[in-house]
Amino acid sequence: MKVVNSTSSLGNLRLGESTLVVYSPDRKNMQTSSTKPVANDTTIEELGIVIGARDLSPTIMSQDFLKFSGIIPSAWELAQEPILNASSAYLSYTNGVNISAQPRSFTLGEALNNKEIQDIMIGKVATRYVNKLPHADYIGMSFTPKMLVPFPDDQNAAQNYISERLLAPGSWKKIGIEPVQAGINLMYRLERCHLTISIAEARLQHPEQEVMNALLFSGSFNYNLSPDLAPNEKLKQLREYINSWPQDLNNFRDLIQDEFLAKHKMADPLQAKSLFPSL
After folding, report:
1. What angle do CA 65, 242, 252 make, to 5 degrees?
2. Exposed, middle or buried: residue 126 (CB in 10 Å: 0-12, 13-18, 19+)?
3. Comparing C-alpha atoms, which of 21, 20, 22, 23 is closest to residue 7?
4. Which residues contact 158 (CB under 8 A, 6 or more apart)?
5. Model pTM greater than 0.85?
6. Using one digit for the tens of pLDDT, what is the confidence trace for 160-189?
7. DSSP state of 76
């Protein structure tokens, strides 16, 4: 995976056929930028479901086990050679789904590529997983949507969006010889779970295309299972949490679009109320 123009890489994500780099970039030749993102129809999304269990071992997550148990359909084809050892497992499929495991966690990821809700596969796979392994000591699950919003016309727009729209003016921005790099972590307590949202600058590299500046919104709806529940009740509650992923996805989309990217809120970053007071 290619790291694009990064001086301090924070991590890479594979979104369909694109390489995403979340980073603190080189800011030479910086120009004044617009903070208007590209239209919604080019937004890239990836979903994840993470299931935690105290006694989970990655070594059981082989291609044969997943297929013969019925957790994944037999027609699924691997996109690359799987990784399987005592510390981790990783399987990537040609349909955009990837499966990974580490001690105590099992993770499903899927690139949406404009899929309709009914065509998204990881929720069904997660349900089949817990049904086939009902005796695992489950501790909780997280639903982790990501939304990548490109700024195709200005390489500095995402950085300016964070520092000018979400953060108030202050002398702290002018320390050093280059513009400050900023990312934001927000934590919400909802009625049914805890939600965290991270906002970071990223760059997107499509095959045979120029690097594109972008904002990455990463969410995590976190559901815990009480250790006091009976095993059958714990399994029932876990299934309910997994089945709530469409509602969580819709809530995440609405939150990002309405509260962060709405047109009337993007018009002038200096007129909007910041998350933090000025110094």
Report:
1. 125
2. buried
3. 23
4. 151, 201, 202, 213, 214, 215
5. no
6. 888 888 887 777 777 887 777 778 999 999
7. -
